[in-house]
Records
---
Amino acid sequence: MSLTFTNPVQELTYQKVADYLQGSELFRSALRNYGDRPKFDILYGSALIEIEVLPWEVHPWEAGDLATVRATSCVTVGSTLDCELMQFLLTENRRMRFGAFHLDDAGQVVFSESVLGGDEMSLIELQTCILSVVTIADTYDDIIAERFGGQRARDRHPQAFSPGLT
């Protein structure tokens, strides 16, 4: 099955991300790519990072195709979704230099960060984006699980962290 892209910038960005990840000493040994969509997974420490190359269809400029790269990691599964947790996540978001906590459709606490793709995408920005998500997920999974219950994503979904990810 082949990949389809919404615009040429998304395709260019996907190729740049693939080349970087496959050549990276940090990530290539724990990399999985998807043959049917512009997405990668990386296992790094106790975090599983999903990296998606997405078209940016509604943006503030009149003309031009754009794409973004979004790195996301599930932090905890089954944490108590109450006002105390929401206050904690919003307060921590204010402290973040890049990225933010949010809840996914299943009510899991996740952390995401995005960078602009295309010709001008900096590989140091891409690496920083990925490593920021890794660091935050790895740091906050224990804090949130201890304070608000639930499990670290690694504990809840150990099959996702098994050898042979590549």
---
Amino acid sequence: MKLIDFKVQHFLRCIMNNPDLISKTILFVKQHLVNAEGGHDWFHTERVYKNSLLIAQSEECNQVVVQLAALLHDIADSKFNHGDESIGPRIARDFLEREAVDEQTIGQVVKIIENISFKGGNFTKEFHSKELEIVQDADRLDAIGAIGIARTFNYGGFKNRPIYDPNIAPNLHMTKEEYKSSEAPTLNHFYEKLLLLKDKMNTETGKQIAQERHRFMEIFLSQFYAEWDGEK
């Protein structure tokens, strides 16, 4: 049996066993994120979900895993849980088990949640799958471009960080721990993460979309510095 045939059969079996699974997951995530910070709320999840569906159209993948992972990827971001990276995967697993999802699907979704985030760029993934590549690209696309800029400054305001301090240079070689605990000005985040994402995309669709969004950030930064220096 071809691998793709097996994935299709697995997809159909999951849906037949629980035809309302995606709808239930959407409702669960909406309820869970009702008071979330604006850059990591339901609307962020919805954008990642839509981008995941778009990217998946051009990839051979398990659609159920992609959808569930996209919907549950930020169910409990460690940034808002004292750095604890185990809470999100645990909440996702508990929900999927309550919905009687098979262990193979649950395991893949949990692994994607555990490995999706940037973590300073020096983090070596220990899990690889096409489904992870798709959802990771979708999540990274929402971190760049116009929405990425808006989310970055929203989070900076949420953490009461300065917008920019020319005396504090970006740290391009942070460890995972340094990245998680950083309190640097918001503009530094462009150099420490956002501008790096274009070259870290996994899929061809992700790479194509990232090009335009990356260029938009470059234009924004050029305008920002000109205004900061009183040139415009």
---
Amino acid sequence: MKDKYMQLAIDQAKKSLSEGGIPIGSVLVKADGEVIAQGHNKRVQEDNPILHGEMDCLFNAGRVGSYKNTVIYSTLMPCYMCAGTIVQFNIPKVIVGESTTFEGAKAFMEEHGVEVVDLQLPECIEMMENFIEKNPKLWHEDIGEL
């Protein structure tokens, strides 16, 4: 079930797509519901190979001290780079739009104590499937499978 925070992440993914980028969005939220930051994949827009959606979101958050009372939302299952950052920052929970188009690093995060909730939202799956179909080379570059 999609909530307002996942909708914000989806809006970020759509923003990236409208900018010519990869449609992946992310939102960092405090346990009390306060949105700390939002971000989206900017690898194409900023010619930056590590600026995935989660990384942009965390960059936009700046220094927040402890992440122990936060949840990060992402429209797509985080890759190992983003998952490593989530583990490093002790973010306890990740809520994901889908993992059908990309399995990501779910097991890695769970092995390190992160709760991972995979919503398998049709809207997120369709957005990524459409993008991958239209941009296979760019997608394979993004996931390191060129």
---
Amino acid sequence: MTEKELIEGCIQEKRVCQQEVFRRYAGKMMSVCLRYTRHRMEAEDILQDAFIKVFDHLGKFQHKGSFEGWIRRIVINTALKNYSRKSYSHEQIGVEYHPDVPVEPTVFSNLGEEDLLELIAGLPEGYRLVFNLYAIEGYSHKEIADMLGIQESTSRSQLVKARKLLQVQILKLQKIAV
């Protein structure tokens, strides 16, 4: 079944088409959800809410750009709305002073994808959101500021602090590995 046929079937509320769309995209979108939440159960809730929105708004999909990209945007927006409803969105996190220490290039080559995702998941909420939106999703600081209701300078600052914190964590891993 083609993507267009699946979309048409979903619009007609054909259960088999809805199941196929979910089967094709849920895994990738769950990865997105996990980057924006603290717990797997929270990510699963966001995924479910996002797919409900996908099916409710499929008639608005204009076949411009990729269907997967359209779904991803809904998932990200759902995750951000979930974040704004949570009380931890107002956490204030400071970063201790850490002098710039050169990081050996081999540290990064020894760091696996799972390790890196785990380090990112351990970032404070604001840092993690901005880091994910900028470094992984590719949004600009202006777009991030608009999405999160913050200043562009705050977005930049959060990204710098997130990178610095990740650097410190990577250095700690390097010391443990040695």
